[in-house]
Amino acid sequence: MRIATYNVNGVNGRLPILLKWLEETQPDIVCLQELKAPDEKFPIDQISAAGYNAVWQGQKSWNGVAILSKGHEIKEVTRVLPGDPDDIQSRYLEAVVNDILIVCLYLPNGNPSPGPKFDYKLSWFERLHKRAVTLLEFDMPIALIGDFNVMPTEFDVYKPERWLNDALFRVEVREAFHKLIAQGWTDAIRKLHPDEVIYTFWDYFRQAYERNAGLRIDHFLLNPKLEKRLKSCGVDKYVRGWEKTSDHAPVWIDVEK
């Protein structure tokens, strides 16, 4: 069974790209981020025609997350990350698909740092830590999936010395990611490819994709029950080379059914 994540950078503007990739690769479960569309503008008719069920939480112009499933019912659990009743940003969605708890998330970017946006990122991470502790108590396979906006190590960023003060690479953010891992989660990509340079994002500027000047910021964190079923993983890097594509590429894992 293939589970994928894809920051589409605008689900309607990139819809032809998304549908083409879905048709070519046929993943079983897909987490989408950065829908950049309110709920009523989510292209459910086209998604359904492609063979997928969907639940989504949109937001006008910004953010937005969705979970797609091919052939399985999606049972939504929550679309709220506990801890801040005043947070109105659409960044979190939990659902059970084929007896796996899928957590689709889109962490804040946090730039410029320091500043209010960076503080919001760190507080969001703290809320995620607390929720993740609770999730680890559940007796079922679980995956935290999506755009974490974190390069965990220097190995995950082209020319790390240029990113030291960026909110995606600041020490506080990397420490927050590793604190999450230390709870008992497994970074699926690094488990299977510990020493390989793997990127999931390439900026639109300075021919970053052509130079492979990328970042690894899209992650799969698996609890022990799902980690035991992990078989393979990869990045559909070629999709980043398509015309009018997202600056992210789809990332996927294969797990035993």
From TrEMBL:
UniProt-annotated site: Transition state stabilizer, residues: 149
PROSITE patterns: AP_NUCLEASE_F1_1, AP_NUCLEASE_F1_4
SUPFAM superfamilies xrefs: DNase I-like
Annotated site residue numbers, Interaction with DNA substrate: 248
GTP-binding recorded as keyword: no
Positions of the record's site feature: Important for catalytic activity: 218
Keywords, comma-separated and alphabetical: Hydrolase, Magnesium, Manganese, Metal-binding
Source superkingdom: Bacteria
Residue ranges of domain Endonuclease/exonuclease/phosphatase in the record: 4-248
EC number: 3.1.11.2
Record has GTP-binding as a keyword: no
Binding site for Mg(2+): 7, 34, 147, 149, 247-248
InterPro entries, per the entry: AP_endonuc_1, AP_endonuclease_F1_BS, Endo/exonu/phosph_ase_sf, Endo/exonuclease/phosphatase, ExoIII-like
Cofactors: Mg(2+); Mn(2+)
Active site residues per record: 106, 147, 248
Cofactor binding note: Probably binds two magnesium or manganese ions per subunit.
GO terms assigned for molecular function: DNA binding; double-stranded DNA 3'-5' DNA exonuclease activity; endonuclease activity; metal ion binding
Example GO BP: DNA repair
Family, similarity comment: Belongs to the DNA repair enzymes AP/ExoA family.
Protein name as catalogued: Exodeoxyribonuclease III
